[in-house]
Amino acid sequence: MDTAANTITRKPEGGRNEGFSLIEILIILAVIAILAGLAGTNLMRWIAEANLKRAARTIVSMCQDARVEAIKRNERMTVNCNNATNTCVVQFTNGTTHRQFDLSTLRSGVRLTASYNTQFTSRGRATIAGPIPISNDAARTLTVTVRTSGSVVTD
After folding, report:
1. How far apart are the two ends of the chain, measured CA to CA in Å?
2. What is the model's pTM?
3. Is residue 132 within 8 Å of 141, Cβ to Cβ?
4. How far apart are the C-alpha atoms of 135 and 108, rounded to whole Å?
5. CB count, 10 Å around CB of 78?
6. What pLDDT does residue 56 have?
């Protein structure tokens, strides 16, 4: 009669214990470490790219919001992106801040590479068209472009 205890401790017919040797385990650990290293560098690159895209989407959203508010309130809304402070601010005509975005809060060195300032009129048009370039530490750049028609695009 064979019990579970006998099955676990039973040796195979060759006389050797079953299991992995120390060298086999070390080789497996080395392969896992190499794969983790490769995955880690790709992950860091992906995070930098994701933060850059997040900044561009947020700035587009702020410009669109400023345009909608200008039309809704029948007054001008100012959008000011300042590369010295690395912030974008949407303000009412009286100077009250409606929205603010500090790009320094994002990782990967996301920053504005040039300043930009415009106003959206009560008809939804931008008084000054121009680019808002954003870059990161991975030397990747995205540009948010505001057109005089009031449309905002990213390339």
Report:
1. 75
2. 0.76
3. no
4. 10
5. 19
6. 96
